[in-house]
Design a protein that fits this description.
Structural class: alpha+beta
Shape: elongated
Largest sheet: 6 strands, antiparallel, barrel
Order of helices and strands: EEEEEEEHHH
Oligomer: single chain
């Protein structure tokens, strides 16, 4: 767990799951989108399926607390796994290259042919009869 608490802004999705993760939180923070998976035992009733402005912090060694507008929950004997979604940042930094026009025309023609029985027969003949049958 980072030294500072993880503070979510807005809606946070809460999922209860089978072992090894007992509680998973997914939401957006100021630094991006995070998913936190906690393994441990809930000291109280399970949190609702959605929280607002949740805050995850270490309460004691091996113990984490989830605090939100809806209430507080403690997870004892907990271990934490934090994942950050970086897909949007990755594709902003490295946009996909455009598909060349000849390749687009080729695949449109193949898909159009595959849409009819005669076209499929033609594609099988062009492939040498290997139609996967």
């Amino acid at each position: 767990m980072p030294e500072a608490p993880l503070v979510f802004a807005g809606a946070v999705r809460v999922e209860r799951g089978p072992s090894p993760f007992s509680v998973t939180l997914a939401g957006r923070t100021a630094a991006g989108e995070f998913t936190c998976a906690l393994t441990g035992t809930l000291a109280s009733a399970a949190p609702p399926a959605q929280l607002t402005d949740a805050r995850l912090s270490a309460a004691a060694p091996g113990c984490y607390e989830i605090a939100a507008r809806e209430g507080r929950w403690e997870i004892q004997g907990a271990r934490l796994s934090v994942t950050r979604a970086v897909g949007a940042e990755f594709y902003r930094a490295l946009p996909p290259r455009p598909v060349p026009l000849p390749k687009r025309v080729f695949w449109r023609a193949v898909l159009a042919l595959a849409g009819s029985g005669m076209g499929l027969a033609l594609l099988r003949a062009l492939r040498g009869g290997r139609g996967g049958e």
